[in-house]
Design brief:
Elements lengths: L8 H6 L2 H11 L78 H8 L30 H9 L5 H14 L5 H7 L5 H14 L4 H11 L6 H14 L4 H10 L5 H14 L5 H9 L5 H14 L12 H9 L7 H11 L6 H13 L3 H12 L6 H17 L2 H13 L6 H9 L4 H14 L5 H10 L3 H14 L2 H10 L5 H14 L5 H7 L5 H14 L2 H10 L6 H15 L22
Length: 596
């Protein structure tokens, strides 16, 4: 069973350079190694001294630009080594595979993005407020402040405590603020990084949360991981009083890159276009580290849709086009991040031309991948821009090598370009490299066209390669509908564990209430892959019953990965926001999926 953590989307898209810079800067390992003390679920809040320069009036409300935020890497299915679904496989049922650079591995991208693209089934209705004021203690409110410690048990592992921090950020319940504050002082930096973000999401509208976070980021003697996570947390908290703090941190070249990068991202999350000049200066500065420049690009994309007047000469999208189009202005990872960010800017003629030029003419395949994914985000309320993006992606799909063809297919799926269905179905049915065919299956699921059900069903039932079968099964869940649900129920009785698990996950995605009992019963299966599929299915299905089943199962689960997934899944099932997701620490990834 493959237990390696799946790398973030930055490694999938940028080929490791920026992430390597961050990790080399004293960030530490992905998994904590600090000895864990006995777990005490009773929160202990210690407020550090308040710096005199916060400029904050205690109790003033936060007003962030939105309620949906970026997401960290998800747990995914762990196919048998040697199968086409194993990112590290060198051979399989279809014969030896070509070495595949992680930057061009579409599965790594999908592993990081899938939750953001789940069909939204709605939360449990636990009446947790998403802005200001918080949640009252009404009769319909779920008691997360007692349920979450109970799910953790007496001595939770690092991964469980990290999952609890994610859960707090997902449900955004002010009653969890004391627990998030305790986790923000955890011995493991992996827990602290997420817990400070949980403090922000649970503490929206609470002046004391701003005070604690501001004190953490301005303490030059403090832990770098906690400081970098707190900068991003200030962005999520949404209080404009953080702008002068963050701009000052961004300008200090003596600070660690994690703190400066987090400050750049947080300025974008705050949404105040007055920060355009500071972010543009950081992005253009060739002396800055790549990770800081990458976060500045993300911040500018957020500001392109932010509030307030744009200062003269500081057009956010214009700066991104400048960096993306000039090979001499930045290293390749920074330019690739700028291309991705352009996809989330308004689809003006200039922005589209920049993305189309990169898709057609860039010699670097990673840059073409970024342009394809960016074009998948273009459109929305602009039909002409959507048609332009669709035509370019179809042309790219037809001419590119298999690794790049997969990303063009995913761009078509994200853009919901229904006219591409027959093109994708044709390639799905052709023999050949299973990886781009599997990407076509996922793209057909994202299209949301029920007419694709027969093509996906045929692959899910007849293909021998597990990687392709599981992709088609997940796509059926993304599509939903009676025919897809009936097929998934049949697949849930297959002897192959990875197919059964994926079918359970697909049933949750399909959202049929008749399958709740099947999903809950599978939590008691002996095979870990099947239990994992049931956990993911319940999380995707959403609702109070799914939440309750997952919280009850977590303390009994023997597999640590599935146990932490159950804790996070319970919070996802309960969340009131569509596809609620949470930012990774700045030390992990310079490119974060942007809020919708």
């Amino acid at each position: 069973m493959d237990r390696r953590p799946f790398l973030p989307v930055a490694i999938a898209l940028a080929g490791l350079p920026i992430a390597a810079v961050l990790l080399a800067g004293g960030a530490g390992a992905w998994c904590g190694t600090t000895p864990v003390p006995t777990w005490d679920p009773t929160p202990t809040v210690t407020n550090p001294p308040v710096p005199p320069s916060t400029g904050r009036t205690p109790g003033s409300p936060g007003a962030g630009p939105g309620t949906t935020v970026p997401f960290g890497p998800t747990t995914t299915f762990r196919p048998a080594p040697g199968s086409t679904g194993d990112p590290g496989a060198t051979g399989g049922p279809t014969g030896p595979r070509r070495p595949r650079a992680s930057a061009l591995d579409w599965r790594r991208w999908w592993n990081a993005e899938r939750v953001r693209l789940w069909p939204h089934r709605g939360g449990s209705g636990s009446k947790i407020a998403t802005t200001g004021g918080g949640n009252g203690a009404g009769p319909g409110r779920f008691p997360w402040e007692s349920a979450l410690p109970a799910a953790l048990g007496g001595t939770p592992a690092i991964s469980d405590r990290r999952a609890a921090a994610f859960a707090g950020a997902y449900v955004r319940d002010p009653a969890l603020l004391p627990l998030m504050t305790k986790l923000a002082a955890d011995p493991s930096d992996d827990v602290r990084d997420v817990a400070v973000l949980g403090m922000a999401m649970c503490g929206t509208g609470h002046g004391e949360t701003f005070t604690v976070l501001a004190a953490i980021v301005e303490d030059d003697t403090g832990d770098v991981h906690r400081r970098s996570g707190s900068t991003v947390a200030l962005g999520h908290l949404g209080d404009p009083a953080a702008v002068p703090i963050l701009t000052r941190l961004l300008a200090r070249r003596d600070l660690p890159v994690q703190v400066r990068g987090g400050s750049a991202l947080a300025l974008g999350l705050l949404g105040d276009r007055a920060a355009c000049a500071d972010l543009a200066r950081a992005l253009r500065d060739g002396r800055q580290e790549d990770c800081v420049r990458g976060f500045a690009a993300v911040g500018l994309a957020l500001l392109a849709r932010g509030r307030g007047e744009t200062p003269a000469g500081s057009d956010p999208a214009g700066v991104l086009r400048e960096i993306a189009g000039d090979p001499k202005s930045a290293h390749a990872p920074v330019r690739q991040t700028a291309l991705l960010a352009l996809g989330r800017c308004p689809p003006t003629t200039e922005n589209l031309e920049a993305l189309l030029g990169a898709l057609r003419n860039e010699p670097d395949p990673c840059s073409r991948v970024c342009a394809a994914l960016a074009l998948g985000s273009v459109g929305g309320g602009d039909p002409a821009a959507a048609r332009t993006a669709r035509d370019a992606l179809i042309a790219s799909f037809q001419r590119e090598a298999p690794e790049l063809r997969a990303f063009a297919a995913l761009g078509l799926g994200m853009g919901r370009h229904l006219e591409a269905r027959k093109t994708l179905e044709k390639h799905l049915a052709e023999p050949g490299d299973p990886e781009p065919r599997a990407a076509c299956a996922i793209a057909l699921g994202l299209l949301g066209d029920p007419a694709a059900t027969p093509a996906l069903l045929g692959v899910a039932r007849t293909e021998k390669g597990p990687g392709l079968r599981t992709a088609a099964t997940e796509a059926l869940g993304l599509l939903g509908g009676r025919e897809a649900a009936d097929a998934l129920r049949q697949l849930a009785s297959e002897p192959a564990a990875e197919v059964r698990g994926q079918a359970l996950y697909g049933l949750g995605l399909a959202g049929d209430s008749a399958d709740l009992g099947r999903l809950a019963g599978a939590l008691g299966e002996a095979t870990a892959l099947v239990r994992q599929g049931a956990v993911l299915g319940l999380a995707a299905r959403g609702g109070a019953p799914s939440r309750d089943f997952l919280l009850a199962h977590a303390p009994r689960e023997s597999d640590p990965e599935i146990r932490s997934l159950a804790i996070r899944g319970a919070a996802l099932a309960d969340s009131v926001a569509p596809n609620p997701v949470i930012a990774r620490s700045p030390r992990v990834s310079p490119w974060l999926p942007l809020p919708e």
